[in-house]
Amino acid sequence: MAKKILLDNIDVPGLASFEVYKQLGGYSAVEKALKNLSPDQVTGEVTKSGLRGRGGAGFPTGMKWGFIDKKSNNPRYFVCNFDESEPGTFKDRHIGQLNPHLLIEGMILGAYALGARTSFIYIRGELFYVLKIIEKAIAEAYKNGILGENILGSGYSLDLYCQPGAGAYICGEETALLESLEGKRGNPRIKPPFPAVVGLYGCPTVVNNVETIAAIPWIINNGYEAYSSIGIGNSKGTKLISACGHINKPGVYEIELGLPVQEFIYSDEYCGGIRNGNELKAVVAGGSSVPILPAELILRTTTGEPRLMSYESLSEGGFQSGSMLGSGGFIVMDHTTCIVKNLLTFARFYHHESCGQCSPCREGTGWMEKILHRIESGRGSMKDIDLLVNISKHIEGNTICPLGDAAAWPVASAIRHFRAEFEEHVKLQKCPF
Amino acid sequence: MPLLKLTIDNIEVEVEQGTTIMNAARKIGGHVVPPAMCYYSKLEGSGGKCRTCLVKVSQGSFKDNRPMPKLVASCRTLVQDGMVVQNTISPEVIENRRAITEFLLLNHPLDCPVCDQAGECHLQDLSYQNGLEETNTDEARRTFAPIDIGDLIKLNMNRCILCYRCVMVADQITDSRVHGVLGRGDHSEISTLIQNAVDNDFSGNMIDVCPVGALTDKTFRFKSRVWFTRPFDAHRECAKCCGKTVLWMKGEEILRVTGRKDKYGELEEFICNDCRFVFKQPKDWTIEGPRKIERHSVISQNHYEKLDKDENEDKNVE
Fold first, then answer.
1. Which residue in A117, A193, B21, B117 is a FRET match for A69, CA 20 to 30 A apart?
2. CA distances to B208, B262, B282, B290 from B285, in Å
3. Looking at the complex, does the CB of residue B144 fall below 8 Å from at least one CB of chain A?
């Protein structure tokens, strides 16, 4: 069995309650940190553990904390990004719903390390039932002296709030999240300045993903060496993968980074193979934004090495023959899947979720959806395929925030790897599936 | 503070710290100035949205001579000492500008023949310089019915390119904002909430900052093509604003009043609604003389001017 850090006790009944969480050794990391460690020591542990941002970008967490503007006299904020809305990604909800105190404990540790006195969990509006669970957990934590004034007699005080968004994917982009948290329209800000200098209400702010924050208590309890001994290369620790699609056992799995993709898909411990014994066709390895890979490239790299579930291995080969670990939304498709139709679904999503602030993304996402719709419904031409490639090329890198890239990559990669299927749609003037 | 050195299209210029690439280019002037559809130097926080001013930075600074990985928005990127910028000499920049123009025109109705803005429209200028000759699309365009936002301003959302300038004018120049961007993506629109009227002393400036024909002056609607009117600088004593305007006249009749715009199409000073909409008689104004219009502009069409004596002499030397 692989090492479990985040989902260790997830099956224990009543884990969401303070008593059960405490009985299982919960809040011991807070006690340890507030009594024995300085904020810099906490940051040091996280830095040395090699923990990387689990929201998709994979930026080293300790380094991100290190960027916070220490010269500023303004208050600092620590914000949790719970706006999980990438198609195929449902790992954060799993933590928030079943183990909210783990998130709260991580929030306290992060806020303590950064010197924040106020913290926010920004949760996606559709997850209203999870919001209720977290709010109940926060209330319990206040009642037991884990939050509020003078936590556990350490002299450190922290207020924690949970704020729902109104259901916009774009608010998962950290600066759009901060705008929304301030009560404004959730448009991404133009960077620089970065949130570490000018963040929430103009003050230094760090925004981290739920899963990142949830890994911190274990690191504090067990030390950075224990954490960094798990994993491979620069991909340390464990990662939650939300597996879905045409597999026998969809669900949220915790894996040690470095697990072979082959094993993840076919072993009974994880996905349990493809449904009905079908043939694997393609995998979107890290949520809808990352490039799609055909079966031969997801199982092996072009050099013939087995592909591993790690930041480095999945991106090996660049965008020509690689993908990204992203947020861990693992979407598996068998041979009955129409790639064009799947891409149309993604394109419709990005069209719907583009904030409309900058022109390439606002106009390009809608345009791509219309063209894909045309091809899928049998009215496309060969010219349309090249046009799609062109549009995606002109969106990528030209936008304010990464949503433009996220909309462009799936289109570019699907045509790169499955061009014949697009051409078949055009030739037959209908969807062959 | 020492001045910062940079080159734009191989032309060297020195600027103060905190200057953007766009403003450094404007200091040089001429063809190196990137086009700007959303940036407006008089509006704080404007720019960065339309992406037409993207330029290539092939050297970040003297200290860090690596190129920047992506094209950057010149209106929002600050100059570093030793920066090397490529605008019109970079094929990548030109190709992207062409693509952005295509994006901006994708949902634009191209109804210039019936648009009051034609002749002084920035999108017209942009597509003239960077547009494709043929269209790549036969997709249906998004459509909205034109609405009145108040008595004085017509909103034709089909033409809007969502530059946010009018939102910033309302935020920064007027005492309250009652309109904004609703919805998101290409289905977002500029509008007032539940048919609210935009009604305050400086709302008319929204018309002047609009780069396209989305916000037009209802008092001038369909009166004349702009190039058939003659612009005159004029002023009056005004308690609310500077009172310095341009009168657009046909014969003795004042068809419309606007603020004075510089060569980048930006207002020199904002004017009040009284000057713009109320005083439409020549006797209300002290006329200073004909307004100088950029020679490339459509408005200067048929307005032959005698060249200055100095310019004549320059010609002779050549």
1. B21
2. 20, 21, 6, 14
3. no
Core vs surface per residue B116-154: b (16+ CB within 10 A) or e: bbbbbbbbbbbbeebbeeeeeeebeebebeeeebbebbb
What would the mean pLDDT of A267-296 be, rounded to a whole number?
Answer: 95
What amino acid occupies position A50?
G
Q: Which CATH architecture has domain A233-334?
A: Roll (3.10)
Which two structure tokens, joined as six digits, stand for B72?
Answer: 């950057």
- Superfamily classification of domain A18-229: NADH-ubiquinone oxidoreductase 51kDa subunit (3.40.50.11540)
Cβ contact, residue pair A370, B186, below 8 Å: no
For domain B4-100, the CATH architecture is: Roll (3.10)
Task: Give the helix/strand (H/E) hosting A162.
Answer: strand A159-164
Looking up tokens 């051409």 gives A423
* Beta pairing, strands A251-256 & B153-155: unpaired
Inter-chain residue contact A170 with B76, CB threshold 8 Å: no
Tell me, what amino acid is at B44? E
| Inter-chain residue contact A398 with B96, CB threshold 8 Å | yes
A339-428 domain in CATH 1.20.1440.230? Answer: yes
What percentage of chain A reaches a pLDDT higher than 90?
A: 96
Q: Which residues of A touch B71 (CB under 8 A)?
A: 397-398
Q: What's residue B136's pLDDT? A: 85
- pLDDT-derived band at B137 (thresholds 50, 70, 90) equals confident
Mean of pLDDT values over B99-127: 93
Question: Which residue stretches of chain B are H helix?
Answer: 21-28, 91-106, 122-130, 165-172, 205-209, 273, 309-317
Instruction: Tell me how far apart the alpha carbons of residues A128 and A134 are, in angstroms, rounded to a whole number.
Output: 10
Provide the pLDDT for residue A424.
97
DSSP H helical segments within A115-234, as ranges? 128-143, 174-181, 210-222, 224-228
Chain A contact probe: residue of B37, B49, B105, B144 with most A CBs at under 10 A: B49
Domain B109-222 belongs in CATH node 3.30.70.20: yes
> What pLDDT score was predicted for residue B199?
81
* Contacting residues of A for B54, CB less than 8 Å apart: 398
Instruction: Tell me which of B313 and A164 has the higher pLDDT.
Output: A164
Of B104, B184, B187, the CB nearest to A359: B104
What is the rounded distance in angstroms from the CA atom of residue A2 to the CA atom of residue A266?
16
d(CA B301, CA A123): 58
Q: Which of B51, B137, B139 sits opposite A359 (nearest CB)?
A: B51
Mean of pLDDT over chain B: 89
Cβ contact (<8 Å) for B50 and A358?
Answer: yes
Cβ-Cβ contacts under 8 Å, A354 against chain B: 184-186
